[in-house]
Amino acid sequence: MTTTALNPVLRVAPASPAAAAAHFGASLAFHADVSDVAAALTADADPGFVVLDSRSTASWDQGHVPGAVHLPTALIAEQAEHILDRTVPVVTYCWGPGCNGATRAALALAELGFQVKEMLGGFEYWVREGFAHETWEGPARRAADPLTAPVGADDCGC
Length: 158
Known about the structure:
Low-confidence stretches: none
Distance between the termini: 37 Å
Helix content: 25-40%
Number of helices: 7
Largest sheet: 5 strands, parallel
Structural class: alpha/beta
Radius of gyration: 18 Å
Shape: globular
Number of strands: 7
Mean pLDDT: 92
Strand content: 15-25%
């Protein structure tokens, strides 16, 4: 038995390059990065999508992405068609990686015929990466967490 056979990373062989390209390409079709969303929203042009906060009103008041639409997941079926433009892609978010609320919201929107992506990291990573947010008290911003955003640079180079 070779050493690689004992290696837990390679115990299951990597997918073929073609399968990997299909998987990762599909992943990018379903997900958006917090930094990419922030860059698109702060650019001078229309970003071409709307951001949707799928959390409760109490959560929204605690903090949300500036310019986001507030539509809790439980209300999507009855209100989405009145609030959102079906021709504009929607990027959903909830609290963070430990919450699947944005996934449930994205599913509900997709079932209604909306183009949708989920913002990975949710509101938690929006704040942790140092982006401006709004609360019931007004605008807010925290220093970037060096574990999630580069210190002294505008982007991570990803």
